[in-house]
Design goal:
The chain is 38% helix and 1% strand. By secondary structure, it is mainly alpha-helical. Helix 2 crosses helix 8. It binds heme C (HEC) (2 copies).
Length: 331
C-alpha cells in the first residue's frame, strides 16, 4: 500500500509546483487565493518529503497502529469513508475525517474553526486519546532515534528532531496537497467549454443561481470557511456534538461547524461533521426541507423544490468538482 501512496503523493507535489509556476509566469491574475506559508515555516521539497514520511508513519501512534494517513487517505481525497473516524484500538472519535486537499488555504483549522495554523493542529490527533493516543515526550524520543529522521532534521532545520521539526514538516507536506484542476475549473476558469456536459452546466446554475448554495459554498474553494449552523439537528442534547460551542461556551455557537469545501465531494462520503448523511441525495433532501428548526440555524437555509431533472443536473454537477489528477500515478 505504501508504495502506491508514495506514487500519488509524488503526483500531488508536482501538481502544486506546477500551479505556483503558472501563477508566477502567466502574468494573468489567478482566480485562486495564494497559499500563505508562515514566515517561520518556508516550504522546500526536502521538508515536504520529510512531512510526507511522517504523515505515513504508524510510529506516531500508540502501538504503532495507525498513521495520519489511516484517517486521511489519498484515494478518498484524504478522508476515510467512515461516518466517524476510528483511532487506535478501535476507539471511535466523535467526528467525520475532513479532506486535507487544499488544507493550505484554510484560514482556521478544525470543524470548530478555532485553530489558527496547521502547525498548531498537528499535535492534537497525536495526543488525543481516541485518535493516536501518544505522549509527545515519548514520541519525540522514539522519532529522534530513527537515523533517517535525525539526519533530515539536521539537514533541513539544523537542529535535533523535536516538536518544531515534526509540526513544521507535516504542515509543509499538507500545504503541498493542492487539488484545483477539476472539470469545473477547466470549464469556468480555464474557459474550456467542453470540460463539462450540458447537464453539469445546468446543475451549476441550479447550485448557484437557483439555490444560492454559493452563499456558503462559494467558488473557487466552494466554502466561505465560516462556522455556521446549517440545520442538521433541532436539539443538541447530551448525545449531540454542539460544534463550536465547545470552544467558548457561547450558546449562539451551538450547532455551528466550519463550512466544508465541496471540492471532490463525490469521493468524501459520508457527509457532515458526524457522517450522518450517506450520500448526496440525503444532503439535497436535508436542504430541500430547509433543514431542521434551531435558533442558530442560518437564515439562508430555506426549503425549495427541484424537478427530477434539476436534481439529476445538480448531482451531475457535483461530479464535475472531482479532481483526481493528484492520483494519476496511483491508478
Ligand atoms: C483517528 C483518525 C485521525 C487521525 C489518525 C488523524 N486525523 Fe486529522 N482529523 C480527523 C478528524 C475526525 C478531524 C476533524 C476533527 C475536528 O474538527 O474536531 C480531523 C481534522 C484534521 C485537520 C483539520 C482539517 C480542516 O478542514 O479543518 C487536519 C489539518 C488534520 N486532521 C491533519 C491530521 C494530521 C497531520 C494527522 C497526523 C498527525 C491527523 N490528522 C491524524 C481524524 C484523524
Ligand atoms: C448558510 C450556509 C450554507 C448554505 C447556504 C449551504 N450550506 Fe452546505 N454546508 C454548510 C455547513 C455549515 C456544512 C457543514 C455542517 C456539518 O458538518 O455539520 C455544510 C455541509 C454541506 C455538505 C457536506 C460536506 C461534507 O464534506 O460533509 C454538502 C454536500 C453541502 N453542504 C451541500 C450544500 C448544497 C447543495 C447547498 C445548497 C442547496 C448548500 N450546501 C447550502 C453551510 C451551508
Amino acid at each position: 500500500m505504501s508504495t502506491r501512496f508514495l506514487l500519488i503523493l509524488g503526483g500531488i507535489v508536482t501538481v502544486s509546483l506546477f500551479f505556483s509556476e503558472c501563477k508566477s509566469s502567466g502574468g494573468s491574475v489567478s482566480p485562486y487565493p495564494t497559499i500563505e506559508h508562515p514566515t517561520d515555516n518556508p516550504t522546500s521539497e526536502a521538508k515536504i518529503e520529510l512531512g510526507r514520511k511522517l504523515f505515513f508513519d504508524t510510529r506516531l501512534s500508540k502501538g504503532d497502529e495507525i498513521a495520519c494517513v489511516s484517517c486521511h487517505r489519498p484515494d478518498f481525497a484524504f478522508t476515510d469513508r467512515l461516518p466517524v473516524a476510528q483511532g487506535v484500538e478501535g476507539r471511535q472519535t466523535e467526528r467525520n475525517s475532513p479532506s486535507l486537499l487544499n488544507a493550505g488555504y484554510l484560514p482556521t483549522v478544525m470543524f470548530d474553526a478555532h485553530i489558527e495554523t496547521l502547525e498548531k493542529q498537528v499535535i492534537v490527533p497525536i495526543q488525543e486519546h481516541s485518535e493516536m493516543d501518544m505522549n509527545m515526550k515519548t514520541l519525540l524520543a522514539k522519532l529522534r532515534a530513527v537515523p533517517e529522521y535525525a539526519k533530515a532534521a539536521k539537514e533541513i532545520f539544523n537542529r535535533d528532531f523535536d516538536a518544531w521539526v515534526l509540526t513544521r514538516s507535516i504542515s509543509a507536506f499538507q500545504r503541498s496537497l493542492v487539488s484545483l484542476d477539476s472539470r469545473f475549473d477547466q470549464y469556468y476558469y480555464q474557459k474550456d467549454k467542453s470540460a463539462m456536459n450540458d447537464s453539469e452546466k445546468r446543475g451549476w446554475k441550479v447550485f448557484s443561481d437557483k439555490l444560492y448554495c454559493t452563499e456558503c459554498h462559494a467558488p473557487p474553494m466552494f466554502t466561505n470557511y465560516q462556522p455556521i449552523n446549517n440545520g442538521i439537528y433541532s436539539e443538541y442534547g447530551e448525545d449531540k456534538d454542539k460544534g463550536r460551542f465547545r470552544i467558548h461556551h457561547d450558546s449562539t455557537d451551538i450547532g455551528k461547524f466550519k463550512v466544508p469545501s465541496l471540492r471532490n465531494i463525490s469521493l468524501t462520503y459520508p457527509y457532515m461533521h458526524d457522517g450522518s448523511m450517506n450520500d448526496l441525495e440525503d444532503v439535497i433532501s436535508h436542504y430541500s426541507k430547509g433543514g431542521n428548526p434551531h435558533v442558530n440555524k442560518d437564515e439562508r437555509i430555506i426549503p425549495f423544490t427541484l424537478t427530477q431533472e434539476e436534481q439529476t443536473d445538480l448531482l451531475n454537477f457535483f461530479e464535475a468538482l472531482t479532481d483526481t489528477s493528484y492520483m494519476k500515478d496511483f491508478r
